[in-house]
Amino acid sequence: MSSNGKRLYKFGAFNFNVEENVLRRDNKPVSLTPKMLELLRVLISHHGQIVNKNDLMRAVWTDSFVEEGNLTFTIRQLRKALEDDAHHPVYIETVARRGYRFIAEVEEVFAEQQSKNGSSQTSFQNNGFAANHTPKSKKFLIPIFAACALLVGIIIVGLWYARSKSLQTDTPVLAAPFSSEKLSTNGKVFIVVISPDGKNAVYTNSSGGKQSVWLRQLESSNNVEIIPPSDDAYFGLEFSPDANFLYFSRRLRYAEGQADIYRVSIFGGIPSKIISEAQGWISVSPDGAKISFVRCYYREEENCSLWIADALDGKNERKIASRPRPIRIGDNKISPDGKTVAFAVGQSENQANEFGLSEVEIESGTERELTAQKFFNIKSLAWLPDKNGLLLTASKIPIKNSLIWRVSAATGEVEPLTKDSESYSALSLDKEASRLVSTQVKQDFRLHLFQMENPAAGRVLADATTVAFAPNGKIIFSSIMSGNDEIWSINADGSGQRQLTNNSADESAPVISPADSSIFFASNRTGAVHVWRMNADGSNQTQITQKTGGFPLFTTPDGKWLYYQSGLNRTLWRVAIKDREEQLILNKEKYRFAFSPDGSQVAFSEKQGEERILTIVSLAAGQITKTFHPGDRKARVLDIAWLPDGKSMIYILANNELENNTLWRQPLDGGTPQQITDLGNEEIYQLALTPDGKTFAVVQGGWRHDAVLLKGLK
């Protein structure tokens, strides 16, 4: 076949002109984005063949870093344009876990190709474009058609150029070179927002166990306290469009339940409460009339919901979206035109990328997905001007750091904007999108060792997040000191430190089998958290759970069963180590489970009215055998461990702000609980005991949050 002339692919009622990059249906142009056209070209040119996902992404997004969600989204949009059904495809077939295949019959033709009888085989024939066979009476139409074709081409190119410009927005903060300026260095600035005019930033600050709210003039670096220190905890800040008022959500630090939303003049005065029972994510409409916010009652049928109300006084509340458990709604932002609210929605309990971005119309409640891309967690959102896209902070497994991402409102395409090693949380743009403030977050948890006989004299052994003791005296722990959460081993004296896993995903929660010293651990390297097993030296890493997945807790002394906590709903399961059979054991959702040394009983904390109790359940009978009141009946039980003799337990209590940590001992014969030691105010991740009960470990530390000003992200 000759390669001269214009090449077309004909399929069904469509023809695709490769040189013009135009798809027509019944000779009428079909509106497609440049990426949809390129994707169609690749699929058609390999029709009948499976094209794997990686090859498609490399071919279509040659100069960009994109995720598989971009491909999925573009495939879905292309199917809509072709009126194809993914479940009963005529054109594009999905080949599970491999890629896509164009299955329709395709005819490839050229404009100058002639058949044996002299007639053209291309779609131009029907339009009178075959030059050697055009009747004289119709030759005068050629200039008209040519002019029309030229006009259509100009329009298509113009639309493509406009779309390209929208994707390559000249938003100042995106067009300027990367620039970052620290606004704080004390690690205690959890929330920061920038004023619409970009001149001021308002932030929360913690000092002496109290929180206050400050205003910083960005040009002069002058800081002014606008709300004095108090025992309140702040969860959200938002400027009014005229920058004269500040909205914030807060509650007493030691109280339970949700926060309340207040409104106060930026120049001072007494805050007025406008909304009760809300989370920290709030947004005010561009005209200042409406406020959106989130409530989470954690009910089965309604875990979290998105609301709208009058911004002046909180009246006329109306629910516009909700989700059942375990799905939650996070940050939300009213669009620049005031008609919709973008909101983060999903779950991250099983450490999978299952958090997405949606939009709901305020008046009708109609929802749509803004992108097919999913994240591990979306922390904060900000609309770009003219509603052409959003910025968000989110992590995406296996990348642990939370990056700043851009989402195109037109195509749903997603791209990461930050490439440094920092992890970003809060996010706020000024009205012109020339300045952005965020918070950078760093994890700082350490492994502390204590002797039970002298618990006041502890020592720090290593940076860690979770820990377990092996029968041979080795300490197995997870740590981010290599940049990722990995499993390590170390001797009790700090010598012999060794890395056992090396994976970009999160590896944590080690448990050692007394039967053969093998190590079980949690990993989300397959996209969701599952239990894995490896030898004591890190070799032979094998996935154990296949169904619900979760975090290992205990192996039976005979080495036959591993008990684990579901990552999705925190219920108790077990898996047969040999044949991998998985069974639900206790359908109770608990923060922590602690096993007796023989594995016959499990202990956990639960609420009874306004008080907390310790409950022990027989696994064989599935019934409660004992309950105890902890030393402080209103304190939170952070973790529990059984002593080796099985006659008593130790547990850690803390207040609602995870401070004032104390270690207690509870005899199981019903004696009075005894406080062993004070563990300070730093947040506690985990408690662990050596097999002989003489030493215990506590993973303790906190998170550092500092505000930064970004003037460029290019």
User: How many structural domains?
Assistant: 3
**Count the strands?**
54
Distance between the termini: 47 Å
The third-level CATH topology of the largest domain is Methylamine Dehydrogenase, Chain H
Helix content: under 10%
Query: What's the CATH architecture of the largest domain?
Result: 7 Propeller
Anisotropy-based shape = globular
Question: What is the CATH C-level name of the largest domain?
Answer: Mainly Beta
Q: So how many helices?
A: 5
CATH homologous group name of the largest domain:
YVTN repeat-like/Quinoprotein amine dehydrogenase
Residue-averaged pLDDT, rounded? 87
Work out the radius of gyration.
Answer: 31 Å
Write the layout of secondary structure elements.
Blueprint: E1 7-11, E2 14-17, E3 22-25, E4 28-29, H1 34-45, E5 50-52, H2 53-60, H3 68-82, E6 92-95, E7 99-102, E8 107-110, H4 141-167, H5 172-175, E9 179-182, E10 192-194, E11 200-207, E12 210-217, E13 222-230, E14 232-239, E15 245-252, E16 259-265, E17 272-278, E18 282-284, E19 290-296, E20 304-310, E21 318-323, E22 328-334, E23 340-346, E24 355-361, E25 367-369, E26 377-383, E27 389-396, E28 399-408, E29 414-416, E30 424-429, E31 436-451, E32 454-463, E33 466-469, E34 475-479, E35 486-490, E36 498-499, E37 507-512, E38 519-523, E39 530-534, E40 542-543, E41 550-555, E42 561-566, E43 572-576, E44 582-586, E45 594-595, E46 601-608, E47 611-618, E48 623-628, E49 636-642, E50 648-654, E51 661-667, E52 674-680, E53 683-689, E54 695-712
